[in-house]
Design brief:
The protein has about 600 residues and is mainly α. It has 25 helices and no strands.
Amino acid sequence: MNHSSLWFTLISCIFFMGLVAWIAYRQTKNQVNDSAGYFLAGRGLSGGFIAGSLLLTNLSAEQLVGLNGQAYRANLSNMAWEVTAPIAIVIMALYLLPKYLGGSVTTLPEFLSRRFDKTVRLYIVILFMFGYVFVTIPSMLYSGALAVLRLFNVPDLLGISFVQSVWLVVWVVGLIGAAYAIFGGLKAVAISDTLNGIGLLIIGILVPVLGFFALGDGNMLSGMKEITVNNAEKLNAIGGADDSVPFGSIFTGLIVANLFYWASNQYVIQRTLGAKSLKEGQKGVLFSGFYKLLVPLFMMIPGIIAFHLYGENLRNVDLAYPTLISNVLPTYLSGFFLAVLLGAVLSSYNSLLNSAATMFAFDIYKPRANKEVSDEKLIKISKIFGTIIAFITFFISPLLMYAPNGLWDLIRQFTGFFNIPIVTILLAAVLSKYVPAIAPKVVIIFHVIAYYLMIWGTDHLFGFPLDINYVHVYGILFAIEVSIMLFFRFWKPRKEPYVFKKDPKVSLVPWKYALPITIILLSLMCAVYIVFSPIGLAYPDAVVSNSFWYAIGGLAVITTALYFLSLKSWMKKYDNYLIKEEERKEDFSVSR
């Protein structure tokens, strides 16, 4: 990149990022002076802002770099992490969100504290903090740094080494992201996320299109045909035993992992807790599910295109997407892409910082240090804590460059330390009224030890690996930990059944199209798997097989029937279910 192109890219990037920051500032001016305004956006987020924020919080540079790297290395089996998310999204929207909004909670640890006790609350916060500081936040920074470094060829530009370039870019990006989160609060994050999300969709669609043109020597259709005819197995999403996500794992640990992410991960659910009503919250959550179905198109297909263009010549699988970008994106779009890329990095990064600061303020400082703390001081404390967390992650992030099998698998393996016990405890909290507080404490301690032993410990300590896919380990430990919960439920149950107290700050009237949209969402999820399967685009003898059309036609008939059934009768039953739930809570409160 010559100096004139470099300056054009930098100036246009600064312009786009400045525009987003200015709009976010205008929309949040004088609205973050109290805790509800700073931490929950004043409980005033609409479905569009929630969906946009969820999109960009989730679909970040980690996915752009990591998923495309996995597609380049193997096939599309890793899309399971994204495309099966609608199952968890539906559970969140229809079942858990009414409970969260009904209790007017600010954090998940607060929700679990009401159900169990304050020690469980502390354990959960510790799990979240370790996960955020040592895994999730560093991965966001590092993946973004890789893409920026490749786009600008920073080592040659500044005359420094690759390692020094990673450290430099991590710190620059991290400092900008920290400013967003620490000084703007959740509403600034949500608004900037939505605007950057639009840009991400534009770039996400544009990159594979330009890649197809490059692959087809100027003919897009030829490029598309190339990936379906040559090495068609790369388009297969039905993972085998040797893939990092075997197809069977979708029905074991993967569903549980997605349920953690979409239903209990603080930095995700915090957007929904800021909804202006249950209706808007359900809209935002369900709409985000449709975005997830686009993941194969703009977060994995570019990796396939990179494989066809460059073969296996890249020194690191995580360089597939950044290399493709640097080769196919026109110079006049480089600034816009950089702004969107940084927006994606900053979104996930500042969302995590905001959520970590929120949990520290509400789950550690306020209940344990100063119960009568003013909103002004609580916001100040959270900003100080967010700053400390930010600087710690600046030192951890660059170390991810030494991951041997790519960023994606490493992140998912380490996430297993905290995702399974949290979702297990959440399910026990909402599905059983008698599980005692001792049960989640035992589960947390057991899980950390057992997970280490099953993934690395037997090899480190005794010299033999268990050779079980880590996603299956998720499922195995989930089953064991549910059994532990049930054991305590029958051996030492609570003396009285627990009922969550109703204290809604927003309307709990559900969205009237929640169930019909759910049917469409789950149907499209199945359709994506049919498309990227051995009877679909991964069919070796043609573009698709004859069975493909029968499968799609049958799915369309079933979807149509269920859609009209949900409109005519299921939605009424769902409304009545929510009404009865609230009546039971009120009756219990009166009887006590």
